Amino acid sequence: MKPFTYERATTPADAARAALRTPGAKFIAGGTNLLDLMKLEIEVPRHLIDVNGTGLDRIEATPQGGLRIGALVSNTDCASDARVRRDYAVLSRAIVAGASGQLRNKATTAGNLLQRTRCPYFYDTNQACNKRRPGSGCAAIGGYSRQLAVIGSSEACIATYPGDMAVALRVLDATVETVKADGTTRAIPMAEFHRLPGTTPHVETALVPGEFITAVTLPAPLGGQHVYRKVRDRASYAFALVSVAAVIQPDGRGRAAIGGIAHKPWRVEAAEAAMPRGSKAVADHMLAGARPTRDNAFKVPLVERTLAAAMAEAKAGKAAA
Amino acid sequence: MKFDTPAGTNPIDQLKVVGRPTPRIDGPLKTSGTAPYAYERHDVAPNAAYGYVVGAGIAKGRIRSIDLAEAKAAPGVLAIVTADNAGKLGKGRMNTARLLGGPEIEHYHQAVAVVVAETFEQARAAANLIRIDYARAKGRFDLDSALKAAPLKGDSSGEGSSAPPIDRVGDFDAAFAAAPVKLDARYTTPDQSHMMMEPHASTAAWDGDRLTLWTSNQMIAWGKGDVARTLNIPAENVRLVSPYVGGGFGGKLFVRADAIMAALGAKAAGRPVKVALTRPMMPNNTTHRPATVQRIRIGCGRDGRITAIAHESGSGDLPGGGPETAVSQTKLLYAGANRLTAMRLAVLDLPEGNAMRAPGEAPGLMALEVAMDEMAEKLGMDPVEFRIRNDTQVDPEKPDRKFSQRQLVECLRLGATRFGWDRRQAKPGQVRDGQWLIGMGVAAGFRNNLLMKSAARVGIDRKGVVTVATDMTDIGTGTYTIIAQTAAETMGVPLDKVVVLLGDSDFPASAGSGGQWGANNSTAGVYAACMKLRESVAQRLGFNSGDVTFEGGKVRSGNRSVSLAEAAGENGLSAEDGIEYGDLAKRYQQSTFAGHFVEVGVDRWTGEVRVRRMLAVCAAGRILNPIAARSQVIGAMTMGVGAALMEELAVDTRFGFFVNHDLAGYEVPVHADIPHQEVIFLDETDPISSPMKAKGVGELGLCGVGGAIANAIYNATGVRIRDYPITLDKHLAKLAAIQTQV
After folding, report:
1. Which range has the worst mean pLDDT, A40-44, B155-159, B435-439?
2. How far, in Å, CA of A295 to CA of A158, rounded?
């Protein structure tokens, strides 16, 4: 770990200004991902801005009938909030499918959105990685890629976004609220928040330098059956091979986002029109253009089957309701 | 004490302490965090500096140049040792690759430097400032292609499993050709990492030319010799201390880079230095269980009797290394007149392969016990009955040599009853529970019982406290407790009057912990020393040792009774002895047996496999402490779940390293994967094994588990997978197509 300086910010605007003022600065909240990466010198911030004192730890109702989840709300608090559980069950279920109880107690809403890939070549500093060292190449391409992306990848990067929460936020059409150093705010739709790797895989989100996440806003509840189905090699504490976040309405219409297959939560709104025709039609459309590797070709049929499982679960849920 | 005739009745048979379920006596130290582990020896090396090991960034080649300037100038740095300034180093007898590489690099993450600094963080930061320019050489990293030209190679795992290069009994080829029912199948098992909780760690301190290493090591006497050989110093100048070991699984049988780099760092820095390998270093810097490619052929009569059985296995290792002895159990487990076993060893430039819990049998049974399941199906026989039909009470290669005890049939029969095996559907893919396809599987467990000489010193002080000292190690198995039970039983004192001191090379040399030989041999050694001490006590009291009893802290002979404290006198009494074995192991085959039963569910949508319940019935001689033995077996069963379902070091065959080298990438079971385990020990004593009449269980609990799980998966799905681990991607495409219409 490189030596670094440290300060505490007390307001979101302070945090954003401090970040712009100090090149190489990073925000730290729970630190569940950043500290590990610093120990490995994958992240080498020269300055840390502790944002835990910025007061963004509440979940509030919005005038539009939705919820505004403060950036510092812990994963545990978000998942166990009665309103989230009742109206946005897919989000609650996605969060508890991730990490461990201890990590969820520390991890925050904004931090979770910003967690970095678990590509093993990203984690080994002897290996070429365009995320770690832009321009150095991608050792994962042609290497061990069972966990890695099957769609939306590029010649520069085949890493995935590893999280669960963001997959649910994507299906819920959440927006990410931010403040910049100049005090201006904006709302970034989840669809645009995470980026595909393209030629700049080190640029992972739409955030500009210094921009600070203040909240994630959920629109008014969608109703319907909420399902989060996470597929993994062991029963807990593992990243998804494939996950499906789905909200299915009583009339068979619905929406679905897929985790574990791309550099961002994968959702193709146009494919959802096919939902009444069944899981295969939806999956075929969502994964059109997939370019899996030999190691992860199984993810393509697995998406279809997991989507089928999620839709069956929704159907059973509807029957039981 | 020479043990060369079967044990008669002896003081252990009283079973007042031995054989009783006894919570471990070191438990409070561990639960309160006060058991001193190797990296936490503030008590004896309070001013230790921190060493951080730098691993090679290539798998094979040379260091062209190494630039230490920036690292040397970094804050807190006290010393940096590389091959350039380490002096001439030797190599341990148990090591294949050198523990300090450079300029030649033999494998990825081979240690090339240790940076010593005032704090761990400083050492790590400075280590990242070392600039190394490598010249990569072409390496051999792909087992399948390397095996094509690999020679036959016999060997011993060093842990009791062994086989010659090729071994023929009868005429396999003719018998197989003539057999009316045949199987010929290929199975693979992957490289696996020990991933014990406590990483390899050592604290080193020099006093002149004498070295003390507080380390985490299973085999103290081996370690002492190899440290001396590596550092080119006399063995008598080396002291190893390893009282607590946070798991080893074979990964700490040998001296590794932590110990040598701590010693070199301490010498260079002129003060004590401690080194722990970081988790990402473990798979590539230390040893691992080698991958295997196995071929099994079985020929049977229609009556289900095996007439021909062949097991061939190929594995790879660095030059000078050895094969994974995956065929060895096949020499002994089932009857059959015509037999063939063979092993091939390919040269690979991957990290060093070596022993991991039940080397040989663990991967060997993962193949053999699936082959037996496949054969039973071909014969239309129940797999339990098929195994029973081919039981043998003698060494099938040398029929005049009997097993000392062999209750495999009893294990299988009792297990079948207790598990509800009669509810298993012979035809696969028949049972559903909601989204789950349900299946049951069985496998035989088999592991040899090894006899190793083992010594101890036992003393009584003026308060009547019995102290045992031996270099035996407790790697989390419960050794402290069973040794205390043995001494308490033999000396006739309560358990709380026994003190056990372990893991110090200044103590008499023991069998050490490995190959599931620790419990039987180390307690037999303690028993021998106790019997010698009893003689000294009797002699001092003028008692006739023939009719002396030791009971309730008193020594009695006829109508005379003296307390042990009094008998010990002001200066106490002490005796040293050990167990040594005659040729009983030659005359009898000594092995341990189990029946493993597993029920799994396979998600019909996603192919995910989850174990629902497991049962092991074990026949392993006298069980010295049922609590500790059960813990060993359920831990091993858990490891078997890992081996069957998830554990695999993924090889990058371009760059020659294990890619998933941390616990996020190398998955082992979590609690949610292990819902229900049951263990039954058959009531057995084996007077051929030792005066304790005990054998080992720590590896038996693993042997066969993977096969039972694989068989249960097949029973659930009807899809046979012969490549471990059985992850969902391997059978997904063959599961019934399903989709959902809303």
Report:
1. B155-159
2. 12
> What pLDDT shows up at residue B28?
97
**Cβ within 8 Å, pair B670-A236:** yes
User: What was the ipTM of the complex prediction?
Assistant: 0.97
Mean pLDDT of B318-347: 97
Q: Give chain A positions within 8 Å (CB) of B121.
A: 1
Q: Which of B125, B661, B742 sits opposite A311 (nearest CB)?
A: B742
Compare CB distances from B732 to A234, A279, A301 and report the shortest one's residue. A301
Give the integer Cα–Cα distance in Å for A156 and B740.
36
Distance CA B493, CA B487 (A): 8
pLDDT for the residue numbered A317 = 86
Q: Do A239 and B664 touch (CB under 8 A)?
A: yes
Kindly determine whether residue A298 and residue B729, on different chains, have CB atoms separated by under 8 Å. Answer: yes
Of B352, B489, B647, B699, which one is the catalytic site residue? B699
Q: How many angstroms separate the Cα of B552 from the Cα of each of A198, B24, B564?
A: 79, 21, 9
Q: Tell me the C-alpha distance between A262 and B140, whole Å.
A: 33
DSSP-derived pairing of the beta strands B292-300 and B466-469: unpaired
pLDDT digits (tens, 9 = 90+) for A200-254: 999 999 999 999 999 999 999 999 999 999 999 999 999 999 999 999 999 989 9
Return the residue of A nearest to B736 by Cα: A305
Interface with A, mutate which of B284, B645, B646, B740 (most A CBs under 10 A) = B740
Mean pLDDT of chain A: 96
Q: Residues of A with CB below 8 A from B54's CB?
A: none
**Annotation marks residue B699 as catalytic:** yes
pLDDT of residue B160: 72
Q: Is the pLDDT score of B117 beyond 80?
A: yes
Handedness of CA A276, A279, A280, A286 (dihedral sign): positive
**Option in A1, A41, A278 nearest B741 (CB):** A278
Contact B637, B677 (CB under 8 A): yes
| pLDDT confidence bin for B218, thresholds 50/70/90 | very high
Residue B683, number of CB atoms within 10 A of its CB: 8
Q: How many CB atoms lie within 10 A of CB A192?
A: 12
Q: Which of A35, A126, A243 to mutate to test the interface with B (most CBs of B within 10 A)?
A: A126
| HEC per residue, B526-566 | HHHHHHHHHHHHHHHHCCCHHHEEEECCEEEECCEEEEHHH
Q: Which of B605, B651, B742 sits opposite A306 (nearest CB)?
A: B605
Q: Is the pLDDT of residue A321 over 70?
A: no
* CB spacing of B740 vs A279 below 8 angstroms: yes
pLDDT-based confidence at residue B545 (cuts at 50, 70, 90) = confident
Q: How far apart are CA A163 and CA A114, in angstroms?
A: 9
Q: A181-197 pLDDT, tens per residue?
A: 999 999 999 999 999 99
**B343-362 pLDDT tens trace:** 999 999 999 999 999 999 99
